[in-house]
User: Fold these one by one.
Assistant:
Number 1:
Amino acid sequence: MVLFFSFFKTLVDKEVIVELKNDVSLRGTLHSVDQYLNVKLNNVQVEDKEKYPYLCCIKNCFIRGSTVRYIQLPAADVDTEALQNATRKEHMRKK
């Protein structure tokens, strides 16, 4: 869990799409993330405005980590090699 917390902290101020377990997808700027992977988004836009018109007014939101299904990240901002190395180190540490 600490690995992902550290990883998401590097993406603060980047645009992400958060898909929730209830099928709502929100696009916004990652403002913060905590150790429970709760996220705070700024400049929020709902992806399907016709299906969720009541969410169009939201500009900032807090999302509980347990309600998140996926977080889509910009490919250019993800260092996959560093992430793989950190995952390997974490796995070896737990053995």
Number 2:
Amino acid sequence: MTTPGRYPTIFPEVTAIPAAYRQERIDQRCYLIDGELRSWDGPCQEVLSPICVATAAGPQRVNLGSFPLLGEKEALAALAAAVKAYDQGRGVWPTLPVSGRIAAVAAFAAAMRDCRDEVVRLLMWEIAKSRGDAEKEFDRTVAYIDDTIAALKELDHASSRFVRADGVVGQIRRAPLGVALCLGPFNYPLNETFTTLIPALIMGNTVVFKPPRPGTLLFGPLIKAMRDTFPAGVVNAIYGSGRATIPPLMSSGAIDVFAFIGTSRAANTLQKLHPRPHRLRLVLGLEAKNPAIVLADADLDLAVSECLAGALGFNGQRCTALKI
């Protein structure tokens, strides 16, 4: 059992943290709507790190800063910007040639690489990832963007070919679906958010996305890159409580694609708010009961090691963690 007198040996003092990994307070007051970083002077959410440091009063969670608590008005403004930019498929972005959309996404990826150190540091402080895990999440996300670009190039090349089926010759063309609402989880706030946002964008859809509340500050430098690389209204970022911002978006009926990573209960509740749920496209990544199967001839030492890593990696907070 730890006594108060021993806290300094468990929790470091701020001065003991290497300068390269200390995090200055960030009071984020901007959000992205219609190609503009709009200023916010309303209520804000304080961000407390899960990481504690030693102080004279005992261990204290580090206050990282704050971000805007937007409401229904701002959420609907973001939606209106996305609807306008899509313009029933006649907007600049959905009608842009594939090469143009690829160039814009590639430009964003390049700008994102310039933010690597800042985003990695915020991943460490906001959700208590180790440096290695934070770097891995960032690098995997950039690699995912590159792979998505490569996949679209292949799809576009294949679309120029003729396909024969049952005596019919034709070409297969892919078209955007409309306005996508993308919501990612707290445990991989960068990677999982972008695994829905980037494919939606590159195929010509316009997007409204809300970062998870634990993992919001790290999007500050990224929305600036989005503003600089995509046409106005193509990407719109809203912050705040999901209960305050998401139901108005779903109830509007203007969301064409709902991309959500979280619990099935939340997904069911939100999709039922849509006035035309039969027309709503769903891209869902929900919870799972992931089993580990150990066969009779398995190396038990290796199996135990792998099961422990699979169950307890990132404190057991991975959606793919072993549960059975």
Number 3:
Amino acid sequence: MEPTAFDRARCLIADGAPPEEAAASVVAAMTPDEVLWCLDGDAPTWGGLMFIGQGGYHLMPFDAAVVPRLGVRGLAFSDGPRGAVVGNATAFPVSMARGAAWDPELEERVGEAIGRELAAVGANLTGAVCVNLLRHPAWGRAQETYGEDPTHVGELGAALTRGLQRHVIACVKHFAVNSMENARFSVDVEVDEVALHEVYLPHFRRIIDEGAGAVMSAYNAVNGSWCGENHALLTEVLRDEWGFEGVVISDWIFGLRDAATSVTAGLDVEMPYRMIRAQHLPAAIERGEVTWDDARRSATRVVATLLRFDDVLSRAVADRGVLGSEAHRSLAREVAARSVVVLRNEAIDGVPLLPVAPGNRVFVAGELAAQVNLGDRGSSDVWDLDARPVIEGLAEVFEIVDDAADADLAVVVVGTTFADEGEFIGSTDPSLMQLFPGADDPELAARYGAQIAAIPDTERPARLGDGSDAFGQGGDRTSLRLRDDEIALIRSVAEANPRTVVVVQSGSAVLCSEWVGAVPGLVMGWYGGCRAGSGLADVLSGAVNPSARLPFTVPVDEADLPFFDRDATAIRYDEWHGWWHAERLGRAPLFPFGYGLSYTTFATVAATASVEASAVVVRGVVRNTGAVAGADVMQVYVNREVDGRVPVLGGFARVEVGAGAETEFTVRVPLDRLAVRDADAHAWRSPSGSYRLTVGRHAGDPDGVELVVDL
């Protein structure tokens, strides 16, 4: 068989040509129609919409830029981030839960497992790296990111990217400043250069520097320009300043409004259908609004990305038997346990409430205890066929009893579900409906129908019912508190049995100041994945010593949070949210960022800081002063008052320490993490002066070790 243009491009790379040069040779062999074909998804609009309405998002990847004549495999997209969205995959704990583990090595293992399952279902590109900052806990898709701090989010997103890209191309999303759900199709976020570059973009850059091959633009506008048409973001920042060489794709369906502007701004592929560009781009080229060189540039980026990842994408992949494998379910249980944050563990008769030995009698209350509560049912939903409710996992370890008063421990499971928070599909903007084309091309529709007919069977989980409420119901939360009946249940159970622990399932903070004093135990259980109950039981029983820490601040009440309007059409973001917002207000949070309890105790017995090459390096020793082995999370906070800037989390390290033992730790704080954005020069200014560092266990830790470095 004669080699294809893509085969010849492989040879060019083998001879030392850069991917862009080799890709240009492929694009040069394309017809004009093939060039345009590379600039959007391959599916017809109406057929694709109908397919998604029938569960198609979970049945096969969505293709773009497939050019068989030239051997271009194209992009095959499937979503994340709690697991492979196509097929009956493993449902891992949501990203926010994994953020609570504060463990990049664990997150890399999760990424590799998800990547392996994605490759098995035919995907080669995934939107699993969702890293928008949690600016406010009402954000409906908070569960899909890792937390409120750019350093913490960036390190975990980079780890997930490393794991994924052993098998598929990682796409980081949603670029940028996307932390509202209901208004995402209409809101314009105003943000100045300092806040943008020092708060809302550093985690994206960290993941780009890690080698992420793709970026997905956001729906919202930033400073007056839709993100899918935002030249400042997609070209000036992403490519010119950061040096990104990969492909930029749009968010789905309404990710752009103007075909020509999106191309010239730097958006390469409209996803997932032949929708806006297919209607308008040919005429825009004829009118001179966009050139063929512009179109070929985007096509070249697509092909270059495929060439850059060709070794990964050409490897043999596991068959579908890897989906939901025992190894991956075991990992899901490990992650669930490592994500459980113990927030309150008061003593009763001089003994802490937790842990409770296996085999003890446990009373379980709360309707969520008997539900499979995986979180959002939008684009991140995973059709896991063996996801189990919490009570089943608890029953593996404890004797479940029906009388609260007769139990050794009472567990009350409360929180939110997909109906309270998650992806919001609806829109009240009539102009969006005008973006849709007329009828699908009959030939394209027929090919697409044949492709659908050939896909492997995927079973719809029984927990989803008939699917009438299964996609995009939640949106932004209308309340940050528990329902009145849940609070009443907590009080009732605690009155019957003072040995009560409350387990909160949610994707972000739940305010609990009005009832937390009524119970001695409180843990954050999240949407804990297919083995949430087993992981929780491991922690409650002491089989796993809890080491998770909050990835966000839990305030006392709503007044301690920044402004949030889920229906806003315009909103201004500044530097102030999260743990540094709490410090600025001078109001102690109920539970600070980075906080979490262990069944042992730790002390920092030594810490030093030195400037080495391009980083401040903090070294120290942690002593386990308790009777059981455990893991501590050392966090380094840097005060930047010398620059008049918000403080930053410089870095962190998870440290395993045996009972009574000592372990050394090292936290490296890159100097560019302390740099200051000069809005006038549109550039960075290197840090200079004396900086105060706090080596502690959470933001604002009064027992933290204070250090000073001169730069």
